[in-house]
Structures are given as C-alpha cells and as structure tokens.
C-alpha cells in the first residue's frame, strides 16, 4: 500500500512539473494570444476589435520590444486611447500597478499630460516587456486619466 501511494505521489509530481515547465507555459501563452484577421486584432478577452492598419505590429507573435502606433502622430494616438473601452483602461490600471511597480514607484496617471504618457510608453513599454495588448491597455489607462 505504501508503495502504491509513493508511486502515485511521484507520478503526480512529475505531471505537475511537466505541465508547469517553461516550454508548456510558453505554448499555452502563445495559444492564448490575440490573432489578426483582415487588419483587425481579434482578442477573445475583450469585446471590441482593435484596428491595426496603422500599427507597426501586424501579428500576434510580435516581440515585446515593438511599440504599437509608433508611426502615428501623438494626437491620433491620444484619440485612439481615449476611445478604448473603460474595461481595457481598468485592466491597464492593474497592469501599471503590477508591471511598472516592479522597478519603480507606481506612476500616477493624473501627474502628467497625455502627450507625456505617449512618449514615456514608447520608452518604458519595451523595457517592461509588455505585449501588444498590455501596451494598449496601459496606454489607454494613462491617457484616459492623464492631467487635463
């Protein structure tokens, strides 16, 4: 009986280790990435599609160093971020707390104007290794709550 319990424990431990390995986690994360169809970023986590025709990133497997809307003027970016759903901005607020707070004090959106946040995100987004969706959510939060 002890041998049976011991074998079951070993089997369970191995299955947990295998399923939680970095390779499996990467494959799982990649399978949950949003996809691009007809120049629209389709993300099942969010209701609204994000148009990507003006974005530098056109595939879901883009590197973390890419910056959305890199070639779009600041005023157009501000308009895009202001039009994003409040739910996306709320997710962005949580991401700011978790991701930005790792390295420095959590930034307060109302301390800077929207234009400043656009430039800060171009620099800090890649440093924080934000994927496209996270970048858009953080930017939406910061711009929507920026100093007026």
Low-confidence stretches: 24-64
* Secondary structure tally: strands: 3
| Class of secondary structure makeup | mainly alpha
Helix count?
A: 6
The main sheet orders its strands as 1-2-3
Gyration radius (Cα, Å) is: 19 Å
SSE succession = HHEEEHHHH
Describe this structure in words.
With 148 residues, this protein is mainly α. Helix content is 53%, strand content 5%. It has a three-stranded antiparallel β-sheet, with no helix packed on it. Helix 4 packs across helix 6 (132-144).
Descriptive key words:
single chain; 148 residues; mainly alpha; 3-stranded antiparallel beta sheet; 3 strands; 53% helix
Concise overview:
It contains six helices and three strands.
Helix and strand topology:
Elements: H1 2-19, H2 22-31, E1 35-37, E2 40-42, E3 50-51, H3 74-82, H4 86-99, H5 114-127, H6 132-144
Antiparallel strand pairs: 1-2, 2-3
């Amino acid at each position: 009986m002890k041998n049976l319990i011991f074998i079951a424990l070993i089997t369970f431990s191995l299955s947990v280790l295998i399923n939680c390995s970095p390779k499996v986690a990467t494959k799982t994360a990649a399978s949950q990435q949003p996809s691009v169809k007809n120049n629209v970023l389709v993300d099942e986590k969010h209701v609204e599609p994000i148009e990507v025709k003006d974005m530098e990133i056109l595939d879901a497997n883009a590197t973390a160093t890419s910056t959305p809307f890199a070639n779009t003027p600041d005023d157009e970016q501000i308009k895009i971020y202001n039009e994003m759903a409040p739910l996306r901005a709320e997710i962005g607020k949580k991401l700011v707390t978790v991701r930005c707070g790792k390295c420095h004090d959590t930034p307060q959106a109302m301390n800077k104007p929207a234009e400043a946040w656009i430039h800060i995100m171009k620099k800090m987004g890649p440093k924080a290794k934000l994927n496209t969706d996270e970048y858009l959510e953080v930017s939406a939060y910061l711009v929507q709550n920026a100093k007026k």
